UniProtKB/TrEMBL annotation:
Domain Pseudouridine synthase RsuA/RluA-like: 93-242
InterPro entries with a match to the protein in the record: PsdUridine_synth_cat_dom_sf (IPR020103), PsdUridine_synth_RluC/D (IPR006225), PsdUridine_synth_RsuA/RluA (IPR006145), RluA_PseudoU_synthase (IPR050188)
Keywords, comma-separated and alphabetical: Isomerase, RNA-binding
Family statement drawn from the similarity comment of this UniProt entry: Belongs to the pseudouridine synthase RluA family.
PANTHER family membership: MITOCHONDRIAL RNA PSEUDOURIDINE SYNTHASE, RIBOSOMAL LARGE SUBUNIT PSEUDOURIDINE SYNTHASE D
Reactions accelerated catalytically: a uridine in RNA = a pseudouridine in RNA
Record EC number: 5.4.99.-
Stored CDD domains: PseudoU_synth_RluA_like
One biological process term in Gene Ontology: enzyme-directed rRNA pseudouridine synthesis
GO molecular function: catalytic activity, acting on RNA; pseudouridine synthase activity; RNA binding
The protein's name in its UniProt record: Pseudouridine synthase
Pfam family, one: PseudoU_synth_2
DNA-binding in keyword set: no
Length: 319
C-alpha cells in the first residue's frame, strides 16, 4: 500500500464556487501542470471531500480540496553519519548551515562524504522518509544557509520564487583590496570561459547577472563586503568581485595569479590567501515565502570560525 505525506488542504470559498477543480489547484494551491499530471496517477493524489474525482469536476463553496504526495526516498544516496548544523526544520523544509569544504550532492567521483549522505542518514535515524531535494546550490568551499525541500510541491514553490527573483540571498565575503565605491551594483553577463569550461567570465553574449554590494569594513589589505544577488549564475559573486579588482580571499580559480592580473600588494595577497584554505564566502541570509504557511521567512547563519578569525587578523593589521 502506498504511503503519503500529510495532505495539503484548501477549502473552497463562495467566490470560487463553480470553478473547475484544476483551477483551484493551480490558482489557490499553486500546483504546477507537471505536478498535477503526476498527482492524477496516484490513488489519493487529488481528492475532493475525501473522494477521488476528475480535475474537470466543478467545485462548490465549502468543498475540501486535498493534495497528497507519495513518500519518496533517495535510494541512490548512501546514508552516512555526517554531522551538520540544523538551523530550522518543519514538515516542509530542512534548513542547514553548510560547513565549508563539504559537497552538497554526490557527483561523479564524490559519491560519499557529502551533505546529502549526512541528511539521508539523519532522516533514516529519525524514522522519516524524504528525498534529498536542495532548492539551490552552494559551491563546495562556500559556507552558509542552504534550503532542502522535503517534497516536490515545496521544491517547486521555492524554485518558482527563485526564477521570479523574489528570494532574498545575502552573502558575506572577505575580499582583496577595497571596491571603488562604498556600495554599488555589478551588472555583467556571465557565461562559460571557452578556454576553461569550469571557469566563468563576463561576456556580452552571456546570461544577465546582477550583484549588489556594500562595504561593511575596510582593512589595510582588504575589505568585508555584504553582497545580495539579483540573479543566480554559477560563480556569480566570485566573477563579479574579480571584475572590479577585488577577488575573494582564498579563491584559487579567480585569484590575481590565476587570471594573471596585477595585485595592488602582491605580498599581502599571498599572506591573505594562505591564511584561509578556501574562498572567503558565506551565505549569510536566505529568505522566501514559506510554501505551506505562505508567510515570509528569513534564515540566518553566523560567520563561520575561519572567516571570523581571518577578519580579526585583518582588523588587527596582522595580515
Amino acid at each position: 500500500m502506498k504511503d503519503y505525506y500529510n495532505p495539503i488542504a484548501y477549502q473552497v470559498t463562495a467566490a470560487e464556487e463553480g470553478w473547475l477543480l484544476k483551477t483551484v489547484l493551480s490558482r489557490r494551491l499553486g500546483v504546477s501542470r507537471k505536478l498535477m499530471s503526476r498527482l492524477k496517477l496516484t490513488e489519493q493524489g487529488i481528492t475532493l471531500n475525501g473522494e477521488r474525482v476528475y480535475i474537470s469536476h466543478y467545485v462548490k463553496e465549502g468543498d475540501l480540496v486535498e493534495v497528497r504526495l507519495e513518500r519518496e526516498t533517495s535510494e541512490d544516496i548512501l546514508p552516512q553519519p555526517i554531522a551538520f548544523d540544523i538551523l530550522y526544520e518543519d514538515e516542509a523544509l530542512l534548513i542547514v548551515n553548510k560547513a565549508p569544504g563539504i559537497i552538497v550532492h554526490p557527483t561523479h567521483g564524490h559519491y560519499t562524504d557529502t551533505l546529502a549522505n549526512g541528511v539521508v542518514y539523519y532522516w533514516q535515524e529519525k524514522g522519516e522518509q524524504y528525498r534529498f531535494r536542495p532548492v539551490h546550490r552552494l559551491d563546495q568551499e562556500t559556507s552558509g544557509v542552504l534550503a532542502i525541500a522535503k517534497n516536490a510541491y515545496v521544491h517547486q514553490h521555492i524554485s518558482e520564487q527563485m526564477i521570479a527573483g523574489s528570494v532574498l540571498k545575502k552573502y558575506t565575503a572577505l575580499v582583496h583590496g577595497t571596491p571603488p565605491a562604498a556600495e554599488g551594483r555589478i551588472d555583467g553577463p556571465i557565461d562559460r570561459d571557452p578556454l576553461e569550461p569550469h571557469r566563468r567570465i563576463i561576456t556580452e553574449s552571456g546570461y544577465p547577472a546582477l550583484t549588489f554590494y556594500r562595504v561593511r569594513e575596510v582593512f589595510a589589505a582588504g575589505s568585508l563586503v555584504e553582497l545580495q544577488l539579483g540573479s543566480g549564475r554559477t560563480h556569480q559573486i566570485r566573477v563579479h568581485m574579480t571584475s572590479i579588482g577585488c577577488p575573494l580571499i582564498g579563491d584559487k580559480m579567480y585569484s590575481y595569479e590565476a587570471l594573471d592580473l596585477p595585485a595592488p600588494d602582491p605580498e599581502a595577497a599571498v599572506r591573505l590567501n594562505a591564511a584561509i584554505g578556501r574562498q572567503a564566502l558565506h551565505a549569510a541570509q536566505l529568505g522566501f515565502v514559506h510554501p505551506l504557511s505562505k508567510e515570509e521567512v528569513v534564515f540566518e547563519a553566523p560567520l563561520p570560525a575561519d572567516m571570523a578569525e581571518l577578519r580579526r587578523e585583518m582588523a588587527a593589521n596582522r595580515l
